[in-house]
Specification:
With 300 residues, the chain is mainly α. Helix content is 60%, strand content 7%. The protein has a three-stranded mixed β-sheet, sandwiched between helices. A two-stranded antiparallel sheet has the order 1-2.
Length: 300
């Protein structure tokens, strides 16, 4: 006995069959899109340093952000090997960090005033700390709450204190601008998109295509924007702390050489390529030199 016979092509689907699928999918997508728009609008805040509206989850407090930074820092130090604080390289890097940190309030206030705004003083509660990690990696980072690390592999590429200060200022800028919190909010929106795709009945290939389009069209450009913002704020910070901001140009030339030209195309990267970065820094150099003249307390 034949059960559930398949319809002939001229009969169409059985009553109450697939016709509901596209409609249900549309409603699911609309609901998730509505939530995404609500989340985006309700979590916008003004960043006085850049003068722009940014996405930061309002449920994430400053203390929460610091706690996450401290947790990540402790995990890294448990896996990496910090250099003895008494070594010359550790003392040199701590000295650079101290000079940069001392100018954070001045630079934050100056940049905020350029946009007619008051600084948030977000870093006032930071518990600053810097460690040097023994590694060939040419890198550094600063986490929310002021926990910093510089890898020894950066020292020979930087070649001097001024270039080190440019990199460290850049990393401090990421923490001051709350880029970590912004990325967390972006990840939440990405998760909303993934859930919408899964619950709406998209097949895995369709979901992958949608997420790839979101990455290239939104997430990666946003990450590159963060890098450009940190370049500017970090350059002003290094200049205000009496370092030579002009060392940023040869630094990034050397960083490009150190990568061996293996950097991915800019559109598929979270960072601007060295050429774009150098052009941006060159355009910022007059402003950086003005900051050095304004805030540097050494005899010029």
């Amino acid at each position: 006995m034949r059960q559930n016979p398949s319809p002939r092509p001229d009969q169409g689907p059985p009553s109450g069959g697939r016709r509901r699928g596209p409609g249900l999918r549309l409603w699911v997508l609309l609901l998730f899109a509505g939530y995404g728009i609500y989340y985006w609008v309700s979590n916008q805040t003004d960043d006085p340093v850049t003068g722009q509206r940014v996405l930061i989850d309002r449920s994430l407090s400053v203390d929460d952000e610091k706690a996450l930074g401290l947790q990540a820092y402790e995990e890294i130090l448990s896996q990496e090997r910090p250099v003895d604080p008494a070594t010359p390289v550790a003392q040199e890097i701590r000295g650079i960090a101290d000079r940069l940190i001392a100018k954070v309030d001045d630079v934050e206030a100056a940049l905020a005033s350029e946009h007619g705004m008051q600084p948030t003083r977000f870093s006032e509660s930071f518990d600053w700390e810097v460690n040097v990690i023994d590694s060939q990696e040419a890198n550094a980072f600063c986490l929310p709450g002021g926990k910093m690390a510089v890898y020894t592999g950066l020292v020979p590429v930087a070649q001097n204190e001024d270039a080190l200060a440019v990199v460290m200022g850049h990393e401090i800028a990421h923490a001051l601008l709350r880029h970590g919190a912004q990325r967390m909010a972006q990840q939440r929106l990405s998760q909303v998109g993934q859930m919408a795709g899964a619950l709406s009945g998209m097949d895995p290939q369709q979901q992958q295509m949608v997420m790839a389009a979101m990455g290239y069209g939104y997430l990666l450009p946003y990450a590159r924007k963060h890098e450009t913002e940190a370049d500017e704020v970090g350059l002003m910070l290094a200049a205000a702390a009496c370092f030579d901001p002009q060392e940023a140009i040869p630094l990034w030339e050397r960083m490009g050489e150190a990568s061996g030209g293996q950097a991915p195309p800019e559109f598929s990267s979270t960072h601007p390529n060295p050429g774009t970065r150098i052009q941006n820094l060159q355009a910022l150099m007059p402003k950086a030199m003005a900051y050095r003249e304004r805030f540097c307390e050494e005899a010029m």
